[in-house]
Design a protein that fits this description.
Herpes Virus-1; Apoptosis, Tumor Necrosis Factor Receptor Associated Protein 2, Chain A; 3 domains; 6-stranded antiparallel beta sheet; 5-stranded antiparallel beta sheet; 27% strand; elongated; disordered C terminus; binds zinc ion; metal-binding; zinc ion binding; cytoplasm; TRAF-type domain-containing protein
């Protein structure tokens, strides 16, 4: 920041006049503003009044109270007198009393020699050819600081002015032109391969895609040709012999076609399987529906009752019966048949409600021989697994005959249209001699019967 203070040299003013026309404090004659005065005529420039009123609220000469500049009046008469006097231009060298040490003002000549009437002085000072100015390119680094007169010739020569780049047209500082050209994307460069000129921004694209002299891989590279050729000759290369490559590729195409065909077949098969399984699922759903209906019927048959009918001559233990109607049912008992030899028809008959189950032991005569028949039935309406076993006992041996059957077995040997059944005939004589009867003519038969429903809560 250059500050240059100067005194005005009012050639027509006496020392006494100066005392009247100048500020009481700073002794300057003000041309750009009025002088201000208190009611008693004590006069100072606007700046001096403002500085004074910051610390004291009175006139600087008398003790009149003054709160702000608004309490003061302008000295219009003094200003009018001043405007009619003549002055030397303050930019005359002899008028300059102070400058920064960095400003070598001695080289700038004596300066302005004009004498100007007071009312035009302000305008002259602002436009004087000898006023000091800085270069408008100061922020770019220009140190020019001299008389305005010299600025015209400097402006053209200034190394810090903006100029358009010759190549990219963007504005750059003249002094920086060489540095800019290193980076300028429009700066011309020569292709090292084909010696043609390009803007710098184009050269990479040129080399990658257009330069006829650059080496590029054969377009059939991914099919097996590993050769490289100049771009200008690549068409000749393509017209050359690639037969082995084509044969290899045709083989691969055939392989792929086969694979596609096989995969299509497998998709067709899978679709068939899916539709078949869909059908099976539908069938299963129908079965479940039927089973649910059966279960409803099954509930209607509750509760269970067991009937055991024995002739008077027989004894029977209390049977064990366990029932869970939707899952399983079991019956276990020991039949003790006394006076066996005297019985002629039904020995024992038991039936159970939940599965219409029946166990019968009958005695009848075939060809003069006594035959004992043991038979089991249950209703075909129920899908159940059955385990039936019996043990014929006497005093000496626990087990002499043991039979078991299950659903598979009874399907082979059903006896009635509405029931599965099984029958065993003991044609051998059952007598005391072979040990099947005790000495006091008693037969002991242990019966075990278990069945379980196959209904499962598939969709609960
Ligand atoms: Zn002043
Ligand atoms: Zn005063
Ligand atoms: Zn001047
Ligand atoms: Zn400059
Ligand atoms: Zn440029
Ligand atoms: Zn090139
Ligand atoms: Zn090739």
């Amino acid at each position: 920041m250059t500050t240059i203070q100067f005194i005005l040299d009012p050639t027509q003013l006496t020392k006494k006049d100066l005392a009247i026309y100048s500020c009481f404090i700073c002794r300057d004659i003000s041309f750009d503003d009025y002088l201000y005065q208190c009611s008693k005529g004590h006069t100072a420039c606007k700046g001096c009044w403002a500085r004074h009123l910051r610390t004291k609220k009175t006139c600087m000469e008398c003790i009149e109270k003054i709160n702000s500049l608004e309490n003061l009046s302008t000295n219009r008469k003094l200003r009018e007198l001043l405007f009619k006097k003549k002055f030397k231009c303050p930019y005359h060298y002899s008028n300059i009393i102070k400058s920064d040490d960095s400003e070598p003002l001695t080289n700038t000549g004596d300066g302005c020699k004009e004498i100007i009437i007071g009312e035009k002085l302000k305008n002259h000072i602002e436009n004087c050819e000898y006023r000091f100015v800085k270069c408008k390119n100061e922020k770019n680094g220009c140190n020019f600081n001299s008389r305005f007169k010299l600025y015209h010739s400097h402006e053209d020569l200034c190394l810090y002015k903006y100029i358009p780049c010759f190549y990219c047209k963007s504005l750059i500082v003249k002094n920086n032109e060489i540095n800019h050209q290193v980076e300028c994307e429009s700066f011309p460069v020569e292709c090292k391969l084909c010696q043609n000129q390009f803007e710098k921004r184009e050269i990479n694209d040129h080399l990658a895609n257009n330069c006829l002299e650059s080496l590029i891989p054969c377009p059939l590279e991914e099919f097996g040709c590993k050769e490289k050729e100049k771009r200008s000759k690549i068409q000749d290369h393509l017209n050359g012999n690639h037969n082995t490559i084509f044969i290899e590729q045709i083989k691969k195409i055939h392989q792929l076609q086969n694979e596609i065909y096989n995969q299509n077949q497998s998709i067709i098969n899978q679709n068939e399987t899916i539709s078949r399984q869909g059908q099976e699922i539908n069938n299963l759903k129908e079965n479940i529906h039927i089973i649910k209906k059966d279960l409803e019927n099954f509930k209607l048959n509750l509760p269970t009752t067991t009937n055991e009918q024995f002739p008077e001559i027989n004894k029977i233990q209390k049977p064990e019966i366990h029932t869970n109607y939707y899952k399983n049912f079991s019956y276990k008992n020991t039949w003790i048949i006394e006076n066996y030899s005297k019985i002629t028809s039904t020995i024992c008959n038991v039936s159970f409600d939940p599965f219409n189950f029946e166990i019968n032991l009958n005695k009848r005569e075939i060809n003069g021989e006594n035959v004992v028949e043991l038979s089991v039935y249950y209703c075909k309406d129920f899908e159940i697994n059955v385990n039936f076993s019996f043990i014929l006992q006497n005093h000496k041996k626990i087990t002499t005959l043991k039979e078991r059957f299950n659903k598979d077995f009874t399907e082979k040997y059903f006896l009635k249209k509405t029931a599965y059944g099984w029958q065993k005939a003991f044609r051998e004589a059952i007598n005391k001699k072979n040990g099947w009867l005790t000495k006091d003519d008693t037969m002991v038969l242990e019966i075990t019967f278990k069945c379980s429903s196959i209904v499962k809560p598939l969709f609960s």
